[in-house]
Amino acid sequence: MPKQQKSNHSTIRKKIRRWIDATLGNTHNHYTCFIPERTGFLSSLALKLFFSGIKIDKEQYSVLRKIPENAIVVYVNKYKSYFEYLFYYTRYKQAGFRFPAIGFDYKVIIWQPVNRLFKIILASIDYLLHKKAFSNPYKSGYIKDELVNGRSALLSLVEKKGFYKRFVKAKSDPVHYLIEMQVSIDRPIYLVPQLIFFSKKPPKSHPTFLDILFGTKEKPGKIRRLAAMLNNKNRPFVEISEPVNLSTFIKLTENRDLSIDQMAILLRRQLMLRINRHRQSITGPVQKSKQEIKESLLTGERLQAFMAQYAAKHSQEIWDVHKQADSHIEEIAARYNTSIVGLFAICVRWLLKFMFDGVTVNYEMLAKIKAASQNGPLIFIPCHKSHIDYLILSYIMLKKNMPGPHIAAGKNLSFWPMGPLFRRGGAFFIRRSFKGAVLYSKIFTEYIYKLLEEGFNIELFIEGGRSRTGKLLRPQLGLLSIIINACKNGACEDLNLAPVYIGYDRVLEESAYINEIEGGSKEAENIQQVIKARRFLKKRYGKIYIKFSEPVTLKEFINENGIPLETMTSKEQNVLCRKIGTWLLHSIDKVTVVTPHALVASAILNCTKNLFSYDHLLSIVDTYIRYLSLQEATLADTLLLDPAHAVEQVVDSYIQRKFLETVLKGKKTLSTDLQFKINENKRPALEYYKNNCIAFFIPASFTALTILAKDSFQFSSVDLHSGYRFLQEFFKNEFTPDVLKTPESHIRKNIKAFIDDAILMPHPTLSDTYNITSSGLRTLKLYSGFLKAYFESYWVALTYFNRYPNNSVKAKDRLKKIQSLGNRMYKRKEIKFHEAVSRVNFQNASDYFIHHGIRGSNDQEKIDFYSEKIQNYMNYLS
């Protein structure tokens, strides 16, 4: 070839090379795994409109906000999906967060700008011609450089041929790559698992025909996905899991000696487990048919062995025992149905609109509980004030994308037609007593084991039933003990105990509760009650308050106890159960919301005057609010915004409901002349609402009464210790003592509060000595007044024991006798307060005196001791 021609060819090649280098920017790093920030106006708009039907709640974004600025963010999803990649890219960019511009093992072509697509093709051809191979974004260092320079990425854990490529073809594993990258840099890499939900319904144990045709709800096909996006009622939504700090993961003690290959396998498993658990925390476990659950229970090894022993012991045919067991399961088991749960949600939404003024919920703590559910089943333990409780709690769960819990309900609620509906809403039914029902007890225990093994959340009421007094009842630990025992036997690795306060401005069952408290019989639940319930629709019941307490795992209690659950004796396990029960009550008390109705009822009942003005009432409420603020109690928002207006509204309500009567004094033209007095017949109703907040005032009440009992204007804190201990022990059936706090600490805290409110004044020269101020004496009576009705109730019970010889009255008739005596004493004015004639108080008092050796008039020495104590305290309270 002539030199001139060679020279021309060389010049052309150089020009082409220069043009290629200039076009490519002297690099072959142009890959389809990267989507630039600007993709063109039309394509960007199309993606925004297409994905607009998928929602991300604000609290989900808070997870992303917590990630440090210097961190490298890699989003993680389960299945490789271009739909999800483009969604995260579009939505996070739109919301101003770091968006995944890089997709590990993704090849995006259609959404590339034309000029960039040309560069990708040119770079691939040029690299292939020169290197005789295809360019690799892993080996070239492109992905690492982009991530270090601030880009974010998306990593998919499951790909159709991903496992084959990694283990057979030895292709680059993105997880392995990220670990190698983390080892070589100082900045942390955050792996952020996330999920898109196209349905909240739990997966079925067997795929349906629709699942086979259009894909499952977890991994829908294109048609099913499009149908979900067009559904306005149940829009798809995104959940973001807690990120994994890769730097921290590598430095974990158990991971230090692992190779990178081993760490990659472990990390992939942990990410997959986190995503799967997060999905289950939204949808709930796999939904099995009634027959599957029953068959699994009845054929279990433990139950089979037990039934064989039971049949032999009771000389019964094994098939007869099987028939009984089958009947017990029918009696107990829930039949959870998402459609019925949705129907209940519609009903609750309607009730909230027409009967209540809204619901206040601390959703931040609920989000924390929701995250905890990924580590084990949730055991919700709410207080129980109304039948609305379990409906509203399940509604809140559904609203915040959580599966409805299985609810422990009394067998009395299994009546037709509500029983079958409640079963499908998640209720399982429990008898009030297992006495003599050995086989039933075993079936119930195995059913609870099965629920926990499957991963269902459970809701139980620690008080056993609805509180008729307004305050928390003593804990009933039977079901809690069964749950702990199931965990001990391996049903689940751990449990999350979540106490919940549910309160109301007004309860629907108010009149029924007062009737029962005063000795009336409880009307059994039936269809007639459901029909009569329509009368409630004509009234408004104020607000509902739901406050979740910090969840605590069972393992935390066990670690604190120092004895592994597996090696605990029955006695040690009972101690643990009682400890948890006490903690649950105090946790609920701590998050109790103080409502205006409760505070005004307290002020009315504790007022020392028969007639009182609105201003006087308001001054008492102000005193209580100052104390509650020092105790960091949660006040209802109406009390925080405008206390005077809130009190005025409650007073008006109490007047309309005839709790209060108005009396005009002097000239009728002045509103200041308006006086109030209590309608004596309505005192028990006011007592109910007072008890809604009484737990916050009991330490102050004990302290105040102990100070008054000293009968001196000067005292030291040491003088109060024995008196406080006596009151705490005397009323332990009414107010469960906080075992974590000593009487001395309560006294110190309340003396400080009394000093801050000018009730007490420290002595100028004597240490630990205090004087009661001139106005302080009246205020101390406002605090001690919380105990007036309780002392009178206990006085009635003690009077009964003083009148009847030991064992002269059958145990089942004792309470009726005390109730009858209380009514007579009230009529004869031997006791002052109508609310003291309380069936629940009498039961607690009777239990206390029997436990302390008083069974009748034969125990005169002990009766005289308590008589003197009660009369002495009642004198200071009058």
The termini sit apart by 126 Å
Q: Give the helix tally.
A: 38
The secondary structure category is: alpha/beta
Helix content: 40-55%
Q: Please indicate the percent range of residues in DSSP E strands (runs of 2 or more).
A: 5-15%
Give a brief description.
It is built from 38 helices and 22 strands.
Which key features would you list for this structure?
53% helix, six-stranded mixed beta sheet, 878 residues, alpha/beta, single chain, 22 strands, eight-stranded mixed beta sheet
Question: How does this model look, in words?
Answer:
With 878 residues, this protein is of the alpha/beta class. It has 38 helices and 22 strands. Strands 7, 8, 9, 10, 11, 12, 13 and 14 form an eight-stranded mixed beta sheet that branches.
Please write out the topology.
Blueprint: H1 3-24, H2 41-50, H3 58-65, E1 72-79, H4 82-95, E2 100-103, H5 114-131, H6 142-148, E3 152-158, H7 162-167, H8 174-184, E4 189-197, H9 209-214, H10 222-229, E5 237-240, E6 244-245, H11 246-251, H12 260-283, H13 290-298, H14 301-313, H15 318-332, H16 338-355, E7 359-361, H17 363-372, E8 378-382, H18 388-399, E9 406-410, H19 418-424, E10 427-430, H20 438-454, E11 458-459, H21 478-488, E12 496-504, H22 510-517, H23 527-532, E13 544-548, E14 552-553, H24 554-561, H25 570-590, E15 593-594, H26 596-606, E16 612-613, H27 614-630, E17 634-635, H28 637-641, H29 643-656, E18 660-664, E19 674-678, H30 683-691, H31 694-709, E20 714-716, H32 721-730, H33 743-756, E21 760-762, E22 769-772, H34 776-784, H35 788-803, H36 811-827, H37 839-851, H38 860-877
Parallel strand pairs: 1-3, 1-4, 2-3, 7-13, 8-11, 8-12, 9-10, 9-11, 15-17
Antiparallel strand pairs: 4-5, 4-6, 12-13, 12-14, 16-19, 18-19, 20-22, 21-22
